[in-house]
Write a structure and sequence with these properties.
Number of strands: 4
Number of helices: 1
Order of helices and strands: EEEEH
Strand content: 15-25%
Number of domains: 1
Strand order of the largest sheet: 1-2-3-4
Largest sheet: 4 strands, antiparallel
Radius of gyration: 13 Å
Length: 68
């Protein structure tokens, strides 16, 4: 994935307005997802296949992934 300009980015609902931890997600045509830091959108973008993204979201919903 090289051209991310056509992607429609959405900021996480867990992001706060005071410059806290902000993550943006964009759906990919393949069904996967692209993730980036909203404070530095020109930096690296992580891209996940449809299967990897679904597995990640399912793990979060099962609370098997912890965040600090």
């Amino acid at each position: 994935m090289t051209d991310i300009s056509p992607l429609q980015w959405r900021k996480s609902s867990y992001s706060n307005g005071s410059g806290g931890n902000c993550v943006e997600m964009a759906g990919l045509a393949s069904g996967g997802a692209a993730i980036r830091d909203s404070k530095e959108p020109e930096r690296a973008v992580l891209a996940f296949s449809d299967r990897a993204w679904r597995n990640f979201v399912a793990a979060l919903r099962r609370e098997q992934v912890g965040f600090e």
